[in-house]
Design goal:
homodimer, nine-stranded mixed β-sheet, 8 helices
């Protein structure tokens, strides 16, 4: 029970000063565990936080799965690693003592293709938090509310320069004239774990593309660790069809989601 | 004791989905209380959250001051109002039940003028969270770390268009040829409570100004509810002097900080 509460002076709570990972568990086993831990460690280096012990993360994740009796389910474990308590206002204590919070929940995979609108909220390519999985996710929450308000599943966020960046909780890929594209990380994109798997599995061009360029695509899909590869059926009001490149990728990466 | 802990499924903790205010208390009495409550209420409207009952806020703030025996001190009360628990990932529950967390601490006023560097981290004028006091403050934490690393007190943040926006926890004003300027809110600026007091007390031009324009100033100062009006002694390596306009403002607004 104690593990389920955090003090209100936690800097993650007060300032979003921390990071998280959401890891897929299939039948009690984590999927792409090493990539999630590596991203969390890179995030710690970027924020100037001590990194967690991977063994501790693993033990706590497995315990959360067990406690929630999710050992035979498709489940998501959320690992939250904060800057801990203390400091004066924005200034961290000289030696921060990070805090770990772990939870688990069932995570069924969405079966239907996604409907995606374009958010009015822009991503900031000049902000570290746009490229790191920090706790500062309120812009994404608000962009997702815009999607909900229009009955859509997701919202495409452009960056302040007008280039496509990502959805609120997924990376974006599109196919134009048979070639596969995704926004480059420099556009203010979180480097998704499944995005990296796609890049390693197929020729993909990482680009700066404005919305018009993206909308000339013949097909598109979203990726994240929990939803896997999810085709887009409607993007900014345009209907998109299935595509053999997507089918091939789904088949190739089936074990990763 | 129970009030000092929050559940780890709180959306403020998980996603920065919430708002805060930091209110100065002098001898047990809040300063500019109405302005803080009004800003929190505007923030709730922007985020789509139910707003708190001002009487509850007042009672809890006074209780925090009393509990910490700060009734005769200069103190800061932090009011944190989150989207509460629940929902699925980014998506809030249909009827969010916000959570209030309140804490208090002594808050001596800095006596020395400030040394200010220019942060590499940009503010996003196209993000609601740049203009609202949300819990997503990690960019400000990182920008302040840049200041600390150079032995400075604060960091000036430009926006992605290169216009001056604000410091990490204060608004910026400068004086050029005897006129007073501050970045307009459209630059990605949080509308500070003391900033509004300055605007109401003196002729100020709200502008979009690039760094070069700001650095041509003859004097500059920072404002926030806790530090009050704090002159800048060094701005991006340039030494700045005192100025009678600043002295007049400090005198005029003395009761507000």
């Amino acid at each position: 029970m104690e593990r389920q509460l955090i003090p209100i002076d936690d800097r993650g709570f007060l300032l979003g000063d921390g990071l998280f990972e959401t890891v897929l568990f299939q039948a009690g086993k984590p999927v792409l565990w090493g990539a999630h831990v590596a991203r969390l460690q890179r995030g710690c280096a970027a924020l100037g936080l001590p990194a967690p012990d991977p063994n501790l993360l693993k033990a706590e994740a497995e315990r959360a799965i067990k406690d929630r009796r999710l050992g035979s389910a498709r489940a998501a474990v959320r690992l939250t690693w904060t800057a801990g308590s203390g400091g004066r206002g924005l200034i961290r204590p000289e030696t921060p003592t990070p805090r770990l919070a772990v939870s688990a929940a069932a995570s069924p995979r969405p079966e239907a293709p996604a409907t995606v609108i374009v958010s009015t909220i822009r991503r900031n390519a000049r902000s570290p938090s746009a490229r790191l999985k920090t706790l500062a996710y309120v812009d994404n929450v608000l962009a997702r509310r815009e999607a909900e308000a229009e009955g859509a599943d997701e919202a495409l966020m452009l960056n302040t320069a007008g280039h496509a960046a990502s959805a609120t909780a997924a990376n974006l890929f599109w196919i134009t004239e048979g070639s596969l594209y995704t926004p480059s990380l420099a556009c203010g994109v979180l480097g998704g774990v499944l995005r990296a798997e796609v890049l390693a599995s197929a020729p993909v061009e990482e680009v700066r593309a404005n919305l018009d360029t993206v909308l000339r695509c013949e097909a598109a899909f979203l990726t994240n660790s929990l939803i896997g590869i999810r085709p887009i059926r409607v993007l900014a009001g345009r209907f998109l069809g299935p595509h053999p490149i997507i089918d091939t990728l789904v088949e190739k990466l089936a074990s990763r989601f």
